[in-house]
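Most newcomers find our protein records easier to grasp once they have seen one. Sequence and backbone structure share a record, each on its own labelled line. Nothing more is needed to start thinking about how sequence determines fold. As an example, a complete record with its sequence and its structure tokens follows.
=====
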Amino acid sequence: MDVRDYHAHDGLGLATLIRSGEVSREEVFDAACAAIEAQDPGLGAVVRTRFDQAREEGRSVDPAAPFAGVPTLTKDLLMAIGGEPLAFGSAALAAWRAPEDASLVRRVREAGLSILGQTATPELGLMGITEPRAFPHPVNPWAPEHSPGGSSGGSAAAVAGGLVPLAMAGDGGGSIRIPASHCGLFGLKPSRGRVPLGPMFGEVWQGAVVEHALTRSVRDSAALLDAINGMDEGSPWPLPREDGFLDALSHPREGLRVAVSLGSPLSAPLGTRLDPEVRLAVEQAARRLEGLGHHVEWADPPVDGSALADSYLTLYLGHLAADLAWVSEQTDVPVSKLDIEPATRAIGRLGRCLPAADYEAAKRHWNRVARDMAAFHRSFDVLLMPVAATPAPRRGELYPTPARERLMALLAIPGAPHLALKAGMLKRLAADSLRMTPFTQLANLTGQPAMSLPLHVTPEGLPVGVQVLGPMGDERRLLGLAAQLEAEVDWGRHLPRPPSR
């Protein structure tokens, strides 16, 4: 199988070729390894490979499994492979090895996927860009001077760049949907608890974090969700395994009630300016949905964007402080001496000073917003919104400047974090960190499923995704709608294609 043939198929397409005997699993495996070796030096998507281990594991793949030996990559965050490195994008964990497989890794293998390596992520998955100090910075295959987004930026670059047809990803505040938007991919964030995080973690960021994948096609995402969903032993979310996600693509629901919003309740309090191309993408998507027979109405979600951003950042601070304590425990290095980035250290210091009452109040706000959105969905089946305020930013554009890092360093002064919180630093941090991506945290707080659809490309050649949110637990409706739009737009033809070799 040559590179051109390999790039011509999504994951299920490759699996069909393997099962039919048109190509062997080994031929597909070799094509993927060749693509990574030839193209990743220019992409910077992969932080480590495991070709030999994957080749050995592939010999026991069940050809009847949905993906029958198709190659994939996992993110260098949460998805532990027992006995192998997992750095969470941080120099502090560069030598750390996971004690056992994550439940999700086991399910990915049971689905017939072959894990060839891990993809880049920002340190501890904290940013909407992927520019870790300790690892390469992936580029956007559409325009190498631009970012693929984050925190699943390495996975997005790998799929858009043709290394693998699908790559695993995670989303705690938009980390699947933002890279999907910037790289012209399909990205589904499932409902809270739909995909297990055990056994190392029960929940991450109070359930805001959900794992899934970035894919070229809707059907790959749906088939993968059929294979990996459902609680594992000890899960805090009692969601049994379900099926029917792939079947839902054949039965899209007619006449959905679609709310359309430019997201001003979320963006205006942060001073966000919506790029005209993003506005155009949303408006065009609304017209497409109307043309497909859905009822479309302009309606904003019932949320206070300022309070939502504050509550999100409050839990973000608290969990980062706990995460750094965990890193310290795993490495036997005091938190004060961990090899971490200045922004990570500064935010961790704020988190250690966060009052428990503020943390609990933030979580209660999440629950109120979830109930408000549930009421909203009594009137509307889905909500159409932007994913990000702009197309992909330039690399380095959103990383903290040296001047800002020097300011953050002042938090090392005794008493400074307490004073900073009292002086309103949380609101400034929310505005600075969420201004360009204020639309994605809502679904993480409420637990709703949400997806980014690659429906637009700017005149400059940058993709722009459009976000759709659905009621809690209703991935089938979202996937059916996505398949309907995929058939209408045929977005796969837009993917950047690496040169044949």
Q: What stands out?
A: The chain has a mean pLDDT of 94. The longest strand covers residues 450-457. The chain has 18 helices and eleven strands. The two ends are 12 Å apart (CA to CA).
